[in-house]
Design a protein that fits this description.
By secondary structure, the protein is an alpha/beta fold. It has a single domain, classed as Rossmann fold (3-Layer(aba) Sandwich). It contains twelve helices and eight strands. The strands form two sheets. It has a five-stranded parallel sheet, with helices on both faces. Strands 3-4-5 form a three-stranded antiparallel sheet. It is globular and about 40 Å long. The protein binds adenosine-5'-triphosphate and magnesium ion. The site of adenosine-5'-triphosphate has 19 residues, from α1 and α12.
């Protein structure tokens, strides 16, 4: 079972993934750490301390990690044509510049003017990874053979781009609470704002949904404890509960 844990920075991926890996006895891959370790980046954004991740190289490494060597064929099979073409059609810079350039008002009006589908189709960026914040070493063993492990957890805000998954959990945090978490990290205001806007616009959710459809669940980490989040995920795995995409709406954060 391949479990992808994704979400805007600060929503709790690293915190939860360790607990979940322990609970399930699964190996854990931290994408931030993998990117650093294998140098899967093409450059740096000096303004924001982002590494510009080489997405093809990352995907290749992840296929190796999960023991699926025929990456290209699997990728072709797993990505539906529509997803492929929309991903191809969208450029790195499109969402980046829209987020950069957007004021509250412009985002608001773009939401008004667009359906979620149109937001969905414009959301392939996140080719940036805040790897500076990679704080744990638990995923150093990248050679994982799925025949020996019944599950594997891959965590990081780019994890949902990996086309193979049985379950994708997008962690969500109400932007005001998320803002407090990110401020504690000492991040620049522009970087914090960019991430809060991404959270309010459901960017990770819609990107994940484009690729993984009904395998995606959204779990809110705003008020519940990490342990309670684990219980929710276990219920999803056991098919006792379901948290499909579309039930969380933080767009009010962008103004009324
Ligand atoms: N229910 C919760 N689940 C997860 N984290 C929570 C929860 N409630 C509060 N937190 C806090 O939120 C913070 C989440 O940080 P964490 O590093 O896990 O986020 P992340 O999603 O991995 O971020 P990044 O993408 O930058 O790596 C931690 O300080 C954690 O203690
Ligand atoms: Mg993390």
């Amino acid at each position: 079972m391949i479990i992808l844990l994704t979400g805007t920075p600060g929503t709790g991926k690293t915190t939860i993934s360790h607990l979940l890996a322990e609970k399930l006895g699964c190996p854990l891959v931290d994408i931030n750490h993998l990117v650093d370790e294998k140098h899967l980046y093409t450059g740096l954004d000096p303004e924001k301390d982002y590494k510009i991740v080489d997405m093809d190289a990352l995907e290749g490494e992840l296929f190796k990690v999960v023991g699926l060597q025929n990456a290209v064929d699997l990728k072709k099979d797993s990505l539906k044509d529509s997803t492929k073409s929309s991903i191809k059609a969208s450029t790195k810079d499109s969402i980046k510049s829209s987020i950069k350039a957007s004021t509250k008002d412009s985002i608001k009006s773009s939401i008004k003017a667009s359906t979620k589908d149109s937001i969905k189709s414009s959301t392939k960026d996140s080719i940036k990874s805040s790897t500076k914040d990679s704080r744990n070493d638990s995923s150093k063993d990248f050679s994982i053979n799925p025949t020996k492990n019944s599950c594997i957890i891959i965590e990081g805000h780019l994890s949902h781009y990996f086309p193979q998954a049985d379950l994708v959990v997008v962690f969500r945090t109400e932007p005001t609470t998320l803002s407090e978490r990110l401020r504690k990290r000492g991040w620049k205001e522009t970087k914090i704002r960019e991430n809060l806007e991404a959270e309010a616009l459901d960017i990770c959710t819609w990107e994940a949904h484009q690729i993984h459809q009904e395998k995606v669940h959204e779990v809110e980490t705003t008020t519940i404890t990490p342990k309670e989040v684990i219980d929710v995920i276990l219920d999803i795995i056991d098919a006792k509960k379901s948290f499909p995409v579309g039930n969380i709406d933080f767009s009010g954060y962008l103004g009324g």
